[in-house]
Amino acid sequence: MKIKHMNNIDLSVVVPVFNEEKRIKNLKEIDKFLQSQPFVSELIVVNDGSLDKTMDILKKLSIKTQLVIISYKQNRGKGHAVKMGMLKARGLYHLFMDVDLSTSPHEIPKFIQAIEKGQDVVIGSRKIRGAKVINHQSFIRELLGRSFIALSSLILGLSVSDFTCGFKMFTKDASRKVFGLQKLSRWGFDSEILFIANKKNLRIIELPVEWKNSRLSKVKFPKDLIGSFLELLQIRINYYKGNYK
């Protein structure tokens, strides 16, 4: 690993949260891992209008950890939260991941290595050779997930095995280009940012990750699948309107 710039931030890790009082303690594990690494990092937590005790817990955690907290009152959706965090990030590389640790921060070093070899965007995948799924989602969720991937590939013209794995890394320049143009605020944002990255001719690679399903997932089927399908169509409409230039 080449990066180590003691006067700058090498890696920014963005974690969106909404009503996560039961899992917010996982930030300690992320922070512990980052502090053990030979690079300078920042941990940005975006509180997406939580109604529970998430913000109170975050304030307490920030006393013992160096958290950068972004918070607003109205829930805007995961896509909006990720966008706010990525645009705030100051590191050379920007990663967003989920607070449920469905993908462990221990995957970070190999993502950095891929960036250092010339990639602009590195996507975590549960679908390619080398990936390991510790515990699966229900049959119907996996079926609907595969359907969404097929629809995304068809509508957006992208060859990606896993659009929605919440573990993606960007160079600073790629991050600014992509998230500065992002329009969607909810579940369809994953597909949108990859569509934008592809249209910007950024170098994109998928890497296999170890992944485990969270029983507290906030994805609601079929409602969110239908909403995401409509957002795929909106991406195409945005493109034809010239909104991604």
TrEMBL record:
Functional pathway: Protein modification; protein glycosylation
Pfam families for the chain: Glycos_transf_2
Every Glycosyltransferase 2-like domain range: 12-179
Compartments reported by the entry: Endoplasmic reticulum membrane
Single biological process term from Gene Ontology: protein N-linked glycosylation
Gene3D superfamilies named among the record's database cross-references: Spore Coat Polysaccharide Biosynthesis Protein SpsA, Chain A
Enzyme class: transferase
UniProt keyword terms in alphabetical order: Endoplasmic reticulum, Glycosyltransferase, Membrane, Signal-anchor, Transferase, Transmembrane, Transmembrane helix
Molecular function GO labels: dolichyl-phosphate beta-glucosyltransferase activity
EC number: 2.4.1.117
Lipid bilayer topology: Single-pass membrane protein
Superkingdom to which the source organism belongs: Bacteria
Reaction catalyzed: a di-trans,poly-cis-dolichyl phosphate + UDP-alpha-D-glucose = a di-trans,poly-cis-dolichyl beta-D-glucosyl phosphate + UDP
Protein name: dolichyl-phosphate beta-glucosyltransferase
